[in-house]
Each structure stands twice: as C-alpha cells, then as structure tokens.
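In practice, a research group might receive sequence data for several interacting partners and want a quick structural hypothesis before committing to experiments. The following worked case mirrors that situation: the sequences arrive first, and a predicted assembly follows.
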Amino acid sequence: MGYPGYCDGLACGMVIGLPPLLHFGKLELQKRFVPDILAGRKRYHYI
Amino acid sequence: MLEKYGPKYIIGTIEGEKAATITRNAGHLSQVPYAEASAWQPAYRSPYYTDSHKKFKVALRTFFDQVVIPEARENDKEGDYPSADVYQKSGEFGLLASRIGPGAWLKGRNLPGGVKAEEFDYFHELIAHEEMVL
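A structural hypothesis for the assembly, expressed as tokens:
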C-alpha cells in the first residue's frame, strides 16, 4: 500500500517486539500476553 | 478513483464498447508483465510458491483492499493511528499472527486463505510482509 506511516502503525511494533518473548520468554508470560496480542485485542506499541 | 466517484458521475456507456482500462477489483493480482513478481502470472511457475501460497496472497489482498486501504487513505492525511476496529479485524483474520512466522504459537489460530498452522512456511510470512508494504 502506498501509506508507509499507516502500515508501520499497523502492528510493526508487535512484529519487532514479540519474537523475543516467543523464543526466550517464560511460559507464564507468554500465556498471559500472546493470545490477546495475536488476536488483536491488545495493542503492543513502541515509542 | 473510479470506484469512489464513478457511481455519482458516470451517467451511461457507449453501446458495444469494451472498456480500455483495467478495473482493479479487490484481490486483483496485476497481469502486467513485471509489475509484480512473475511467480504470480499464470504462465510462470516458481519453485518456492505453491497453490497454498497463491490462495494466501489473494485472500490477504482482498482483505487489504476492502478493509485497510479505505481507512489508510483518511488516516494518512491526519497522521492518526490505525483504529482499534481495523486492528482487531486484522487480528481475527490472522494477519497479525502470520507476520510473526511459523512456530508453536500458531496452533489453533485461524490464518488467511485457509492455510493450516502446520503447513505455514517462511514463504507465507514473506508474502504477508510483502502484501503489507506493496
């Protein structure tokens, strides 16, 4: 799409920040956060 | 442009005329040579992409054309965040999950184009990123 700012806002923060949690995080942390984040209920912002 | 203003301004067509422009429907993969990667043209075959990849790509493209782009046009002028509605829809559709990549966290999620979690590939993830940006 020709809208880079919008595309970055649509989940780029999650794409950068979630894989460390998935590969190296503790299981309880993963169970707490990952289902909601991947379903779109919680949003993972980066600053 | 034609989709947005067409119904208001087009009052008629010439009889027997065939449209010279190609209308871009939702889910349209361009047939112009070299406009997109040649793997998606019907005459070519790529060793990396299977039918499941093509269904995935078409499903993602219809989703973007119908849901995301109308809102992106408005929001880009103001610089707003994507609304929670679009974000949630993309989560249910499986777009967010497919951008992370294959792994154990995909089990039981519904993914676009009817792709199953076991056959999810790095190429599917590549297509998801590609559709997002291009």
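Before designing any experiment, note the following. Chain B is about 45% helix and 0% strand. Chain B touches chain A through 30 residues (CB under 8 Å).
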